[in-house]
Amino acid sequence: MTGLQAPLLRRRLICMVYEAMLLFGIVFVSGFIFDVITQSRHALMLRHLRQFWLFLVIGAYFVFCWSRSGQTLAMQTWRIRVTDLDGSRVPVIKAVVRYCLSWVWFLPAMALDYQFGLKEWHMVIVVALGIAGWALTARMDKDGQFLHDRLAKTRLIHVPAETRLTTQA
After folding, report:
1. Model's pTM, two decimal places?
2. How does residue 45 score in pLDDT terms, banded at 50, 70 and 90?
3. What is the rounded CA–CA span in Å between residue 157 and residue 123?
C-alpha cells in the first residue's frame, strides 16, 4: 500500500477545525429551513426533531462528499482524502458507517457532561479532553489511522500537491 500514507495528525486536526467552520454555514441554512417548514419560533421548540434533522443534513453532506470524491471542501484544502482500504473510492454504506462512528469523537464526553450535570467551562474541558483522547487513537495505530476509520474499514491518506509544469512560450 505504498502511496497511501496517512496525513500528519496536526494536519488532520486543523482540517477538522476548518470543517467545523464550514459546517456552521450548513447548520445555519438547514436550521433556517427547518424553522420555516415547522414554523418554529425559537431553538428549543421541537429540539429533538431539530437535532435529528441536523444529524441527517450533516450526515448527507459528509456521505455525499466522501462517497463521491473522498473529500469535503476542507479536506481538499488540506489535501486529505478518505478512501477504502485498497485506496479506491468509499462505498456509500462505508461512508454512512464512518459518519456514525465519527460521533464517538464527541458522544462519550457529552454523556459524561450530562451524567454529572456539568456546565460552562467544565463541560468544554471534558469535551476537549474527549476529543484529545480520541485523536490519540491515531498515535496508537500502526498505520496512523483513527479508530473510527479502522472500524469503518476506511483510511485517510495524504494527497500530494500537484506538480505544475510550466512551458515557456
Report:
1. 0.88
2. confident
3. 32
